[in-house]
C-alpha cells in the first residue's frame, strides 16, 4: 500500500485523481493539499508519493520539496521541458532511492497510439494524422497530434523511409492541412467531441488505422494510478508513461 | 427492354458500363461506339438510349445528334455546366418526348451522402467534411467534397442556422483545413484509398457521421444502370441522379 | 413563448430537460411536477404544454388529465404502444385543438439514422447494423437497433429488394449475430461507449455507412426542445419526431 | 540480390507475387514453377530462395526438396501446423545455414493489428473484435479474427486481467456474437468489403480502436517481399512475420 498526497486537490485533475486513488487497490490517499495549505501536512500524513497537479509557477518547487524529503513525485503539471527535467535529475542524484516521473499525457490510450503509430509508420507508404476536439479549443493542431507526427517522422527517418507520396498541385484553400515534421495533420473542431485522434496509414490495397476517442477526464485515471503504483520501485527521473506501461 | 448504345465504349467508364449493361435486366447493349466510329451505327442498331462517356469536345454534339433522332441520352462526360444544360433544354423542347439526363456523379453512395448531409446539417451545431483519396490526385479538395460543402451551406442558410462554433485563434500551419462556403473541408491523400468521404456532424453529447468508401469503378455501375432504365419514361432535361433515385 | 410544465422533474431525463427548457428560446418553464405533487399546479401555473417523463404506471393518466384541460403533451415515458396511442386519439378527438406527441426516441441523431437507413437500404445489396453500448446494459440488441432493422426490412420489402447475400455455411459460435426482420444485428458491450450505432450498406466496390455516437443525455435535449416548440401548432396525436423534423 | 523461384506461379497469390518480386529492389525472379514443371528448373536457374504457394498436398515435399539443396524457402501455402513445422525443423537441422519461414498471413497490417491488440488488451477493461468480409465467404469468424482473439486472451491471461464486464441477460437472437477464447467476435458479411477487421478496446471515458481494411491481394506483397529479403540471413525455422518485421 502506497500512501499518496495529492497537490492541487481542488483542481479538476486533482479532484478526479483523488477519487481514483481512493478507489484503487494498493494506493491510500493520505493528504489533499491545495494552494493555501502547508506542505508540511504531506510529511505529517506520512505520504510516500505525491501527485502534483498544481499550477506551473509552484509545481517545480513543490516537487523539489517532496524529493528532498524522500517522497516520490508523479508530476502532471504541464510545462516540464528538458530544462526542468534536468534540474529534477540533479535533485534526485542527491537523494538516494527517490523517484520522479514527469507525465505529459496520462492517457494510456494516447501513449499507446503514439507508440503503435511509430512502430507501424515505416511499414506503410503513407501516413496522416486527424485530430478532433470540441470547438472551444483555441489552438490547432493539438499537442498530442504534434507529438504523434514527431514520433512518426522520427521512426520513418530512422528506418530510412522515403517521403510521403503526394501529387497535389492545386489546393487553393489549404484542404491538405498542416505539415508537422513533414506529416500531414488535420484538425476538426466540432461540438460532441472531447478529444479524439486517428492515425491513418496506407499501402497499395490497404488502410491501417489507430484511433483513440476520449470522452471524459476519467480516461486519464488508469494512467495516474499506474504511475503512482510504479514510482516507489523506480528511483531516478523518468519522462512519459512508456516505461510504466512496459513499452520500452 | 431498352436498347442502349455506349459512346466512348473503349474508355474506362465506357467499357465498364458496357459490361454492366449486358448484365442488367431490362437493358440490351446494341452498339459500342468509339472515336472513329460512324454515329449512324447508333440509329442502325435501333438504339433507344445512348450513354455518353466521350471526351468533352465531342460529347455535346453527339448528344445533340441522338436527341434530334429521338434517342434519349444519359451524359456522363464531365463539364456539362448551366450553359450546356440550357442548350440541351432548347434541343429537347423541339423534339417531343425525348429525354436527356446529365449526371455529374454516378455514385449512388455519393448522391445519398450529399442528400443526407444537407437534410441533417441544420439539426447540428457543427459540421465538417473529410475526403480521402489516393496520393496521385492533383487537386484538393475533391469536386464531391466541394459540392457537399455547398449543399450543406445552402441547407443551413435556408434553415437560418447560425455560423459554426470555432474558437481557434492559433493555427500556424493550417491544420483547420479549407473553408468551402464556410464549411471546413479536409483532404487526406494516402495510398490505399480510392475515393472516400466522411461528413461529421456534432451537437453536445453526440456525433453523427455519414461515410462513403469507394474502392472501384464498379461502384458507379448501379447509378449508370438506374439512369438508363429511368430515362425513357422521363422526357425533358434532368440534372443529377436525385430524381432517378426518388429523392425529390 | 410556450409555458411548459415538466412531469417527473426529479428524474434524470426530467431534470436535464428542465434545464434545457430554461435555456431554450421560445420556451418558459413554469412548473416542475414530481411524484407527490398535485397536478392542479400545472393548470395554476398556466402551462400550455406538459413534458411527461413519469413512470409508465402514471404517465397515461397524467397525459389524459392535461389533454382534458387543453394542455398539449409531449410524452417521453416508454411503453406507449398502439393500444395507448389509440386511447390518446379518442381523448384528443373530444378536445378540439389539443395535441399529443409520443416520442419513443428523443435523439434527433437516432431518428435521422433510421430515416437515412430506410431511404438508402433499397439501393445496396447488403446491409447490417452494429450497435455499441456500455457493458451494464442487460438486453441485446438495443431497442433502437431493433427498430432500425425493422424500418430497413420494411423499406426493402416495399422496394422489392432481394434477400441479403450470405454464403456462410460454418459459424459454430454465432459470430454472424442476430437476425432481426432478416437484417443482421451485432451488439458490442464495451466500457467507454454510452450509446452508438452504425448501419453498414454495401455494393460491389463501395461501402456506405451511417453512424451515431451518443455520449450523454444532453444529446436528447434538441429533440425535447423541438417537440415542445412544435406541439402547440399541431393538434391530434403524432408518433415519433419525424414530422417535427420535417422528414415526412 | 537474391535469386527467387516462385512455386505455384500460375495461382493467384503466386502470379501476383511474381510481379511484385520483379518490381522489388534486391530480388530477382529466376524461375516460375507450376504444377507440371520439373523442380530441377529451380536449381538450374540458380535460385537461392523459393516462394511456395502450391497446394497443401505438394507444398511440403517441394519445400523439403529445396531445403535439401540449400535453397531457402518462404512458405505461403496454408495448413502448416505444429506437425509440419516440426518436420521442417528436422530437415533444416541436417542442412547447415538454410532457412525456412512459414507465413500464415502475409499482411503486415494484419500482423501489426494482432501485435498491437495483444499489447493494448491488458490496459483496457473491455475488448471485442469485429471482422468484415465479402458475403461469398463460407466460414465465420475469419481465421485472422480467431487468431486475434486468441492472442488477446493470452495477453490478458498473462497480465492477470479480469474477465470482460457484460451484464447481458437477454439476448434471444445472439446479437452478442461468438466468444472465441472468451473474447466477443462479430462477423459482418457485406458486399463491398474484401477483408477488414477492427479491434475495439474500452475503458471508462475512452475507446481505443485498431482497424485494418484490405481491398486487394496487392496488400500482401510487402509481406512477401520482406520475407524473401529476410530469409537468406536467418537459418533455422521461423513462424510468422513478427521477427521479420522486428516486432520480437
TrEMBL record, chains A, B, C, D:
<dbReference type="Pfam" id="PF05173">
    <property type="entry name" value="DapB_C"/>
</dbReference>
<feature type="binding site">
    <location>
        <position position="32"/>
    </location>
    <ligand>
        <name>NADP(+)</name>
    </ligand>
</feature>
<dbReference type="GO" id="GO:0050661">
    <property type="term" value="F:NADP binding"/>
</dbReference>
<feature type="region of interest" description="Disordered">
    <location>
        <begin position="157"/>
        <end position="177"/>
    </location>
</feature>
<dbReference type="InterPro" id="IPR022664">
    <property type="entry name" value="DapB_N_CS"/>
</dbReference>
<dbReference type="InterPro" id="IPR023940">
    <property type="entry name" value="DHDPR_bac"/>
</dbReference>
<feature type="domain" description="Dihydrodipicolinate reductase N-terminal">
    <location>
        <begin position="3"/>
        <end position="106"/>
    </location>
</feature>
<dbReference type="GO" id="GO:0016726">
    <property type="term" value="F:oxidoreductase activity, acting on CH or CH2 groups, NAD or NADP as acceptor"/>
</dbReference>
<feature type="binding site">
    <location>
        <begin position="143"/>
        <end position="144"/>
    </location>
    <ligand>
        <name>(S)-2,3,4,5-tetrahydrodipicolinate</name>
    </ligand>
</feature>
<feature type="binding site">
    <location>
        <begin position="103"/>
        <end position="106"/>
    </location>
    <ligand>
        <name>NAD(+)</name>
    </ligand>
</feature>
<comment type="similarity">
    <text>Belongs to the DapB family.</text>
</comment>
<feature type="binding site">
    <location>
        <begin position="8"/>
        <end position="13"/>
    </location>
    <ligand>
        <name>NAD(+)</name>
    </ligand>
</feature>
<dbReference type="GO" id="GO:0008839">
    <property type="term" value="F:4-hydroxy-tetrahydrodipicolinate reductase"/>
</dbReference>
<dbReference type="GO" id="GO:0009089">
    <property type="term" value="P:lysine biosynthetic process via diaminopimelate"/>
</dbReference>
<protein>
    <recommendedName>
        <fullName>4-hydroxy-tetrahydrodipicolinate reductase</fullName>
        <ecNumber>1.17.1.8</ecNumber>
    </recommendedName>
</protein>
<feature type="binding site">
    <location>
        <position position="134"/>
    </location>
    <ligand>
        <name>(S)-2,3,4,5-tetrahydrodipicolinate</name>
    </ligand>
</feature>
<keyword id="KW-0028">Amino-acid biosynthesis</keyword>
<keyword id="KW-0520">NAD</keyword>
<comment type="subunit">
    <text>Homotetramer.</text>
</comment>
<keyword id="KW-0457">Lysine biosynthesis</keyword>
<comment type="function">
    <text>Catalyzes the conversion of 4-hydroxy-tetrahydrodipicolinate (HTPA) to tetrahydrodipicolinate.</text>
</comment>
<feature type="binding site">
    <location>
        <begin position="76"/>
        <end position="78"/>
    </location>
    <ligand>
        <name>NAD(+)</name>
    </ligand>
</feature>
<keyword id="KW-0963">Cytoplasm</keyword>
<keyword id="KW-0560">Oxidoreductase</keyword>
<keyword id="KW-0220">Diaminopimelate biosynthesis</keyword>
<keyword id="KW-0521">NADP</keyword>
<feature type="domain" description="Dihydrodipicolinate reductase C-terminal">
    <location>
        <begin position="109"/>
        <end position="245"/>
    </location>
</feature>
<feature type="active site" description="Proton donor/acceptor">
    <location>
        <position position="133"/>
    </location>
</feature>
<dbReference type="GO" id="GO:0005829">
    <property type="term" value="C:cytosol"/>
</dbReference>
<dbReference type="InterPro" id="IPR000846">
    <property type="entry name" value="DapB_N"/>
</dbReference>
<dbReference type="GO" id="GO:0019877">
    <property type="term" value="P:diaminopimelate biosynthetic process"/>
</dbReference>
<feature type="active site" description="Proton donor">
    <location>
        <position position="137"/>
    </location>
</feature>
<dbReference type="GO" id="GO:0051287">
    <property type="term" value="F:NAD binding"/>
</dbReference>
<comment type="pathway">
    <text>Amino-acid biosynthesis; L-lysine biosynthesis via DAP pathway; (S)-tetrahydrodipicolinate from L-aspartate: step 4/4.</text>
</comment>
<dbReference type="InterPro" id="IPR022663">
    <property type="entry name" value="DapB_C"/>
</dbReference>
<dbReference type="Pfam" id="PF01113">
    <property type="entry name" value="DapB_N"/>
</dbReference>
<dbReference type="InterPro" id="IPR036291">
    <property type="entry name" value="NAD(P)-bd_dom_sf"/>
</dbReference>
